[in-house]
Amino acid sequence: MTTPxxxxxxxxxxxxxxxxxxxxxxxxxxxxxxxxxxxxxxHHLTQCDNLEDCKMNLGETDFGPGLAxxxxxxxxxxxxxxxxxxxxxxxxxxxxxxxxLSTFLDFxxxxxxxxxxxxxxxxxMSGRDINDLISMAHPLGLFKESTMxxxxxFESNAKGYADLYQCVLVDTPVGVYFSKFLQETSQNLGSxxxxxxxxxxxxxxxxxxxxxxxxxxxHTSGASKSIDDAFYERDVHQLELxxxxxxxxxxxxxxxxLKEQEIRNLVWISECVLQNQKESINDxxxxxxxxxxxxxxxxxx
Length: 301
Hints:
Keywords: Ion transport, Transport. The protein is mostly helical.
């Protein structure tokens, strides 16, 4: 309890004021947690014989409305619909938020903006059509169309990158990230031996950290699981924990990243169904699964 004349002021977004500013949006994202596919949903999908069966099973989930108008389901169509759904949900959360949460959510979109810029730069260097590249861009990282079309017009050299930053990227939210990078001439790794040396150096560093060492050991042990999957499993475990606490912004970031993993799962399963690779169809990382290794381990205690 404060006394008259006290200099104490509650911090914006602190425990004593968090629900006033952000409680509604937090309740929304926690409600959206129920939209993740369940263990039974994944089981039904892995039993499908064709993509039409997948569409029918997804019709009973939150993905149903987005796929209802698709006459033919393909992994690409499924991925596009899932990303569109994520984008719509995220933008709704953003529209309901106030600072500093709104700023935090804006920072989440910066990753997609950077990915889109790199997509345009690399795509045009490979001779891809700009319209095709724009259609492939992530909806959460879009700029104005004039900006998107301007990015690939600069030369692929140090001067061109500097001009790109000064003329276009400087006015974007991610311009600061490119201010140094785009003014330097990028140097690609050469031989496979150079790549191998870099990986060995990376491994020497990673193994010093207990939280990363188990995932890296998958790469060095020759296990059937890829190092990507090992890190995905670790990420899912950490991201799920964000929903165990309250009055923080981590659950918003976790929701987006877990949805990304769910989309990877759907694409993997649909590709396996399409190619009749049933022996590999279960090689995905489910979200909030009761059979997750870390959850089973805790239940045994």
